[in-house]
Amino acid sequence: MIHLNRKHHSRLSPRLQSVLQQIVDDVVNRLGCLGALATTLENDMGLYVRASAFTVPDGRLQQVFAHSHINLEPGQAMMYLNNARHRYNLGVSAVNGATARVVNEPGHQHLLSERLYDLLRPLTDRATADEIQRELDISQVIAVPLVVQKEVVGAVMALTQDSFTNRDAEFLEAFGNLAASAIQNDYRLTAMESLERVIFGLQARMTDETRVLQTVVDAVVQELGYEGAMVATLENGNALPVRAYALDDTPQILTHLEKKAGMSLLSPKSVVFLDQSRYQHNLSVRAVKGIDGRPQKFLTSDHLHDLLRPFINKPLADFAQRMLGIRQVIAVPFFIEDEVVGNLFVASRRDHFTTWETTLLTTFGQQAAAGIRNARLYREAEEQRRIAALFGRMAFSSTAAVHGLGNDLSIISTYLQMLQSIDDFSDSQKAEMATTNARMVERIDKSLRLLDNLHEPWRHTPDKAVQVNDCLVRAVREQFPEWRRGDTAVANAEYSLDLPNGHTLTLTLSLANDLPTIHTAPDMLSEAFRVIIKNGYEAIVAKNKSGALHVASRLQAPNRLQILIRDSGVGIRPEDLPRIFELGWSSKKGKGMGFGLFWTRDFIHGLGGSIYIDSKPGLGTTFDIMLAVADFSTS
After folding, report:
1. Which residue, of 73, 316, 334, 615, is most buried by count of CB atoms within 10 Å of its CB?
2. Given phi > 0 = left and psi -120 to 50 = alpha, else beta, which region is 150?
3. Which phi and psi angles does 204 have, rounded to 5°?
């Protein structure tokens, strides 16, 4: 599971904070508990308090805990799973027990104790815990591990002045399921948002290979929360030099390692060679060489030494591993068209990488490959049309997949917002929400498939004879999912669609019959049209009144097609018109990536076509696109 960086544990997303607070409030109110805590399991193996609720007056509770030097404020770590002093803590025992069970046995169970000390050890001593227990008249404490999809993500703990019945425990486990689902959904949503930012960020750095690689490793450490990350690229002579690295907040340990090894991580000496025997046991070499010459998808090891050998001896590597708290390292080769171009290395404090993690890290590795190829092609290309064609073909797969990810992120986010009001729901509605959990898991699985599609984002997309009208209809359906439920699209017809502000959109299609084909990739052309249609739709919504969107096609000349996409939206200011195709510029301040129209123009130019805009503020905008008809006479 992907967790927030341990330096930023206190920065929990408001959407998840609200859900967890609602759950502990409900536990206290419904069960009549003295108090309840919700904790999340983070990447440093710490159980961090995320929400708490107590029926004890705040002043008295704070006085009791302050006197005992106990801090249960949100954002603070209660205990650590890999700390021997904490292994008998009730929460740690529940999580460790669930971790051992979920691999082979479905479900999980709670742990009960008559002693408050079991919940607070070793935060305080036995005598102090017993004194608090008497003062607050605590009878029992309970710890319930939070498990979703065979993955432990935290624990809910509660205190009562009575006794917990089996029904109480079942209630806690039911709410634990909601909490686990919310935690996993939120962390995965955060990780996918990070991936989205990295993908678009790489476009802005496409001319600088070093910055591309540094962007990837920085995101892995700073946003996904791993202890460290490195990237090595495969160069001439079967060499794999380290090109970029990022480390969490322990640079002095790296300095110590470099001093002992007599070399820095980015020096010319920090390189392994695939065809030299002294490097054959290095994790990077083993991952790239793979089995029977076929590279591994990824390769893991419990020993940091495997990643650093033969430059760092085993005792020194083991010392660094203990100091950094690293439990496992992974090497993820990345490819361009089945050819290995480098390796992404990641160090984790958890004892294994989950399927979700390996899928996401493979995707980050492929973004490194994408960035490398972008930078190299950009340097090599000498004329604008070739740059446009190559960039358009390379960028399409990532853009389309990110669009799909965005749809899933929106649905998952809406679901999390609904969970925030769960206390207002009836029992039947809560039962329905439990059913919705399964659908959210399906959404997560769909997101995994989309990530898998990103693993080879720059593979060649074949051209073929394409009907422009088919791509226009597909683009309209992508932008207006509700339109799919209607009848089959008519080439010349008018449709009425609801706008989110209560107004109406009139969609008109005027598509000429029997148009000749053009030669391109249909997915890419559909995406280019969708970008323009989406901009028109958003301009109409921004006007806050009913509007019209007109899509037309015609044969403008024997060898040229014309496509017109006209909206009645807010229009574009004259001073902004020259900038709308610039990378990074957007009229939607703070919202748009400024990538869609930039890519669309380059793609259209790469086809030998043209795109022009006519816009009047307050009246609307027209995109006028010309495309060359396919010529198969020389094929």
Report:
1. 334
2. left
3. -75, -20
CB atoms closer than 10 angstroms to residue 215: 22
**Radius of gyration in angstroms for the set of CA atoms belonging to the chain, rounded to a whole number:** 28
The answer to whether 622 and 613 have CB atoms below 8 angstroms apart is yes
Report cis status (omega within 30 of 0) of the bond before 122: yes
Give the C-alpha separation, 303 to 321, whole Å. 8
**What is the C-alpha separation between 88 and 121, in angstroms, rounded?**
8
Which residues, listed in sequence order, are joined to residue 615 by a DSSP beta bridge?
621
CA dist 206 → 165, 282, 318, 340 (Å): 61, 30, 38, 19
At 468 the three-state DSSP class reads helix
Beta-carbon contacts of 164 under 8 Å, excluding residues fewer than 6 positions away, are 31, 112, 140, 142, 158, 172
The gap from C-alpha 28 to its chain's centroid, in whole angstroms, comes to 33
Q: Say yes or no to pLDDT of 567 above 60.
A: yes
Cα dihedral 155→161→163→169 (10° resolution): -30
pTM for the model: 0.58
DSSP structure class, residue 485: G
**Domains with residue ranges and CATH for the chain:** 6-183 (3.30.450.40), 205-380 (3.30.450.40), 462-628 (3.30.565.10)
Distances (CA, A) of 619 to 275, 536, 541, 548, 567: 66, 12, 13, 11, 8
| The pLDDT of residue 5 | 37
pLDDT of res. 501: 79
CA distance 346 to 307: 10
User: Could you give the angle at the alpha carbon of 580 between the alpha carbons of 574 and 585, nearest 5°?
Assistant: 120
Q: For residue 444, what pLDDT is reported?
A: 62
